[in-house]
Every structure is written in structure tokens, then in C-alpha cells.
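Milestone M4 deliverable, item 7.
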Amino acid sequence: MKAKAPKLTDDIYFVGTLDWDRREYHGYTLNGTSYNAFLVFSDDNKAVLIDNVYPEKMYIAQMWGRIQDAFEDRGLDEVKIDYIIQNHVEKDHSGALTEIHQKFPDAPIYSTDVAKPGLIKHYPELADATFITVATGDSLELEGKTFTFMDAKMLHWPDSMFTFLNEEGILFSNDAFGQHLCKRERYDYEVPESELMDAAQKFYANLLTPLTPLLKNKLNEVVEIGLLDKIKTIAPSHGQVWTDPMKIIGAYLDWANGVCKVDQATLIYDTMHFSTEYMAHAIAEGIMSKGVDVKMHFLKEDERSEIVKDVLESKAVLMGVPTLFNKVFPSIADVYLYIDELQFDRTGLKRLGATFGSYGWSGNGPAWLNGKMEEAGFDMVGNMEVNYVPDDDDLAACFDFGAEIGEKIKEL
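Output delivered:
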């Protein structure tokens, strides 16, 4: 398959894959993504491949097409990979590794000591490969190119690492700082900022939120060793390359520390016969009456990976649930479990929480969920239940309920 290899610099090429068709990954929705891999040439034309692509024939063929184009662009007749850097075990970054090793069996594979057994477990054909396991501060030195490695354990797997190309100031960060975007363009400034940052926020909320304490420690380490001032570019394993690294580093610091730039609440609700939905709209009016923004997520239409993106930048989360068999409507239970697993209380902000809903012959659904949200780390400030269809007095009470929460949000 023929494919062009866009240049990052004279010696660095993008040789990854554009996956136009991916609509779900890691449990969240997307509209395509990229599996970024990079080919770096030393001054004497030694070739270093950093990461690779998903293990499907069309993706691997696209990668080989770009690699061939990069060698042709440099006027080299023979394609030869001399070194392989594997920043992460997961298959969307390692799926072509067996084929690469078969083509270039003498190329050593640089990885963390945790990654080596993981790679062999995934790909038994690598048992005879030459692995060079590295830790923070170790390096690969070539003619005019020095690659320094940094352990990035649990960002977002135990095997993860960063690779820093000293001469160019490029941090190859694998899954950190990524976005699930599929674009012809390769750089941050080539995409509307709102689209770029929205994708980065969704990536963080769904993949990195529970790892926030480790992320903050790693960012502090980057500062302490003096690396931050040296980073000119960040090349993640998904989405756009950051030419303004402090834009995404600053955003990560805000998300990690629970910074909400506006007063905002997220309302998540489902309904059986419109009653809980009616309540949600009335509560939203009360919240907005206090000058607080609301993000409304109706579970007949919205899905959890978009919802948690808004939770990340909200000071309060309200969940509206019809009672079903003395418990909660299944769609709400699914979202609650997902939010619980992401551990938003690790981001430095103890978010307010509240529940509401209608019931018929028996209540308890919202109250049950209220207790579960408290267990998940929310600062619960109320629960409201209405029997059957809310009347005008009930809706007025819903408005007041929202207004009280709006006031509490303004006090945070």
C-alpha cells in the first residue's frame, strides 16, 4: 500500500496509521483515531522506529507504505530498521511488532523491564528477540541523535514509558497527552482549538482520571529534572502533535488539580414516562437562575464517555433516576458504575452531588443512588423524590432544589 510519510523535521517522519472507521475504543465513542508511530534517522542514517500500529493487515500495510516513502525521501534504496523503541505494550501501539521483528531480527527492542514479559506474552514470536530494558535516565546514543528514556508507570499501563529526543526537544509520550482524532493534518495548530481541546479533555476524563495522583507526580518529576524547559514538541500516540506543549501540560495540571474555570453542574438523567425528565428540566432552571452553567445528558441519547468529559470540569453532578424494582433504572446504574471507577475525587476537587427522580408504587431508587454517590466520593447535598407525575408545586420545589445547589456551587 502506498502512503506518504509527513515530516516533523528533516530527520523525523510520521509513519503511523489513520483509522477512519473506529467508533468505539476502551469503552468510549469516537469518530476515528490515529495510531501514531515515528521514524527517526540519525546523522548516519540509522533508523529508529518509535511504536507501531494496530494488528490488522490494512493498518500494518499503511505503516509499511509510509516507512517506504520515508526511506525514499532520504534517497535510501534499502528499508532497514536498526532500532525499535516500544513505549507501551497495548496492541494499538505494538500490533505490528512481530512482523517488524521478523523483517529486522537484529534490531534490538528498547522497553521497560515490565514491558518485556508483557510483549512476549502478547507475541510469543518475540521470545528470541533482543530486548534492552531501560529505566529513567537511560539513553540510546546515535550519531547526532540521543534518546533519553523516562519510566511512566501507570500512564496509563504499568509498562509505559516516555522517550525524549534531546537534540530536537521532542517528547514521544505514547498515551499521555493524546486525543482520539483522525485528521490529514498532524499538528495542533492545524485543528480548531475547541475541537482539539475537547478531544484532549475527553481522552483525559476517560483514560487518565483515576491515575491523577501518579500523573501529578510525573509532571513534578519532569520539572525537578529540568526537562520541562527542554520540551519543544510533544508527539503522543494518538491524535495531533503538540507544538505548544504548555497548552496541553497546563490543561493536564488544571484537570489533575480539579480546576473548573466556570461554575458548572452536570445533570445526568433517564426517564420511563417523562416524569424524571420533567424534574431535570425544572432543576436545571433553578441552577441556571444562580448564574451557573448546566450540561444536560439525557441517557436516551447521550453516552457515558461524553458525559464524564463534562463531569471533569463540573463542580456538581446531579443524577436523575426513575425507581425500578426498588433500585435504579439500568442506564443510570451503568453510568454511575463508570463514574465510580474513574474516581473523580482524585482530581483535587470534592464535587457536590445530588439525586432526584420519580416513583410509582414504591420509591427508594434515588435514595439508594444517593448513598452510592457518597461512597464514590461526592459531597452529597440533597435527594428529591416525586410520586408519579410532578405537579406545579413539585416543579416549583424542583426549581428551588436546583437554586439551592446553584448557591452551593457559587460558594466553592
